[in-house]
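REQUEST ID: PR-0412
SUBMITTED BY: lab tech R.K.
PRIORITY: routine
TASK: structure prediction, single protein chain
INPUT:
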Amino acid sequence: MQISPFHPFRAFPEASRNTSRKASREPSRTYLRSLGAAGVAAVAAVSLTGCGLFGGSWDVKMEVTGAGAADIAYSFSGDNDGKTATGQQLPWTKAQNVGFGFNDVGVKDAPPGTACRIYVGGKLKDEQKEPDDKGTVSCSIHLKD
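STATUS: complete
OUTPUT:
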């Protein structure tokens, strides 16, 4: 009776073991390529959505006019946190191409004569010409398909 070279009880000499390829904890190239491709696809989808390839796209311009300087809070569509521009000399403008969503601009403790406007595609969509009784000037529009 001859014992098979693959018999579980047969001792293999060290020289016959394949030691040329060592076990590695590094990710395989295929895994890294797949991960990279998924990342590129995700970034492309988010970028294209914001540019309107998967929905509407609008050129939005925000404007605050008046005398002196002001702290201006604003948010374009897709900007969940919003931004604050402190001590801005008036008049102030900011423009961006956006997808659907809310666009807001406001000034708290605005001096008399301060006004805000939001334009979409060059057309005036919202305007507040004077601060309200709390000293706030704010404009808002909702863009949707």
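NOTES: The mean pLDDT is 80.
REVIEWED BY: pending
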